[in-house]
Design a protein that fits this description.
By secondary structure, the protein is α/β, with parallel strands linked by helices. The chain is built from 10 helices and 21 strands. The chain folds into 2 domains: 128 residues, Immunoglobulin-like, CATH 2.60.40; 261 residues, TIM Barrel.
């Protein structure tokens, strides 16, 4: 054969036989990530959902992208097929509620999720560790910072919104105390009353623990939490520390020691409401003795003041352990220098409590004048500052005959508090009195 022909054929063969570069089928989806996972198959009545977000600066087609799961039942099983496109920065939620996800996911057992055109070519993945905590009703696994950060267990979720931890400083220092029995009214008509509170300038709801614990209120409490999450109203659980219908001393006078069972019960309750219900804080009421504090002072260590401070410290430690911006607050009696009766030293408590809430109730037994009303507010604000906290003055919404006040009369008392060193105001209570608009205060 002609040598030139052989050489030409060899060259053609070399070119034809050169491997063709393989294209990663996941390449076109790069930048689309799973951002939040609410795995609630193990919580009756709650949907599972997965949020994805486009972290790039361009639109990305989702055609052909799927979600795969591996758990105790499935191995790389497709549970969701995506379609359409996702604009830059846009997020999309796929849920069992509309069957965009074809199966729920349980958070009390290990699972792995893979986002990709197939399970072997992942665009993104998430693996729930075997030792991870199960999610509460409103918890989720989230990327913190949003879209780019490490995965974090969070007791509250941010479905369809940027993932960010709760920041007290971004809210108004205004709150309302409410009972569990108020839930039906608060949530009626798609939460019309809750929405009114928010519009009027109230950013925090202190919900009594019975609203969460009483089975008769469960559905209303769930609805309340969902609406509050939607409108940006922070819910705190209102716990009764040393009282359950009668006073409970946290000190055993016979052994002259702290009652560990009391502290354990309070810690467990706080943890339960934080993890199960996703509240943004713990509010301690009855965090005092019922006027008998001096009868329980046995040593430099075991005494009424230390008993109160210990409870405050332990609740602060629990809240801080989540690293989620969770808030501590406490109701105080409005009597300065009265630790011999109640065991409350405001400056000491403020070392652990973010917000002191002195109950400066002027109508009835105290009958404060305008001057004394404002002086008490200043006193607690000054004491809170010594401990590193702040004080929101708690005031009544009803007069001495328990008749609800008009919006004008209540606004006058709120204005008096706004003239003091208090950082905010708390109203006692919901369903008594007409709440005024206070959007112009404490901006």
């Amino acid at each position: 054969m002609n040598r030139l022909l052989i050489t030409a054929l060899a060259g053609i063969c070399m070119f034809a036989c050169k491997p063709i570069p393989q294209v990663d089928p996941a390449e076109s989806f790069k930048g689309v990530v799973m951002n939040e996972i609410a795995a609630h198959e193990d919580s009756e009545g709650f949907d599972t959902w997965v949020e994805i977000v486009n972290t790039t600066d361009k639109e990305i087609s989702l055609e052909g992208l799927q979600l795969f799961i591996t758990d105790d039942y499935f191995s790389n099983q497709s549970i969701g097929s995506l379609s359409g496109a996702l604009a830059s920065g846009e997020r999309k939620v796929f849920s069992t509620a509309d069957q965009a996800l074809r199966t729920g996911i349980a958070s009390n057992a290990p699972f792995t999720l893979v986002l990709g055109p197939d399970a072997q070519h992942p665009v993104d993945s998430y693996e729930r560790p075997a030792d991870a905590r199960a999610l509460g009703y409103f918890g989720s696994y989230q990327r913190i910072p949003d879209g780019t950060g490490e995965w974090k267990y969070v007791t509250y979720s941010s479905e369809g919104r940027a993932n960010e931890l709760f920041d007290l400083s971004k809210t108004r220092p205004t709150a309302v105390w409410a009972w569990g029995s108020h839930l039906s009214d608060l949530t009626a008509n798609n939460g019309a009353k809750l929405r009114d509170l928010k519009k009027l300038g109230y950013d925090h709801l202190l919900m009594n623990f019975a609203g969460f614990r009483n089975k008769n209120y469960r559905q209303q409490a769930i609805k309340c939490m969902r609406i509050c999450d939607e409108i940006g109203l922070a819910v705190h659980v209102w716990l009764q520390a040393f009282y359950d219908g009668d006073w409970i001393s946290p000190i055993d006078d016979e052994s002259k020691s702290f009652r560990e069972d009391i502290y354990e019960r309070i810690r467990n309750e706080a943890t339960q409401y934080l993890e199960t219900w996703g509240v943004k804080g713990v509010h301690l009421d009855y965090i005092r003795f019922g006027g008998t504090a001096s009868k329980h002072n046995w040593s430099m260590e075991v005494n009424s003041v230390n008993a109160v401070n210990r409870c405050c410290r332990e609740i602060r430690e629990i809240c801080d352990s989540y690293d989620e911006g969770l808030v501590t607050s406490a109701a105080l009696m409005p009597e300065p220098n009265s630790s011999q009766y109640y065991g409350q030293k405001p400056a000491d408590m403020a070392k652990y409590i973010h917000i002191l809430m002195p109950m400066i109730y002027r109508y009835g037994s105290y009958n404060f004048s305008d001057t004394s009303f404002k002086e008490r507010s200043d006193y607690y604000a000054e004491q809170a500052a010594k401990g590193g906290g702040v004080s929101w003055s708690g005031i009544q919404t009803y007069d001495a005959s328990t008749k609800g006040m008009s919006a004008e009369a209540l606004r006058r008392d709120i204005d008096l508090m706004a003239q003091t060193k208090a950082s905010g105001v708390v109203l006692f209570r919901y369903q008594l009195g007409t709440f005024p608009d206070i959007n112009d205060l404490w901006n």
